[in-house]
Amino acid sequence: xxxxxxxxxxxxxxxxxxxxxxxxxxxxxxxxxxxxxxxxxxxxxxxxxxxxxxxxxxxxxxxxxxxxxxxxxxxxxxxxxxxxxxxxxxxxxxxxxxxxxxxxxxxxxxxxxxxxxxxxxxxxxxxxxxxxxxxxxxxxxxxxxxxxxxx
Length: 151
Description:
Blueprint: E1 3-7, H1 12-29, H2 33-37, E2 47-53, E3 56-65, E4 70-78, H3 87-101, E5 106-112, H4 116-124, E6 128-130, E7 142-148
Parallel strand pairs: 4-5
Antiparallel strand pairs: 1-2, 2-3, 3-4, 5-7, 6-7
């Protein structure tokens, strides 16, 4: 298989990539990783996407409801050896499309100041910096973004 697959957080390929993501974030976030990991549990995620290339899963992302109009983008990850190929942009676009199909009008997300590639991706894809929301309010290492979805 090549391309995008819509699935859920019980998919074993998704779980494997999220494990890689958590290992990466444990390195970049250091001692703050345990704070962030409590908000990244998979049990509340029903919509996830995977990117396959040559039959191998190399990217993922997910959305979960935040409020009646808003979904939160979660668990975005592309294997480092595949960075720069536009995979994350395609995954994010698919998540936005899925959110619109489900009736949501806005996406929000949080990323860390120590993830410059993620910050660049979100800005490139039309996300605007907003005040830190919810559990991220007052967290110095967090940057929050939003995007109004096309209807």
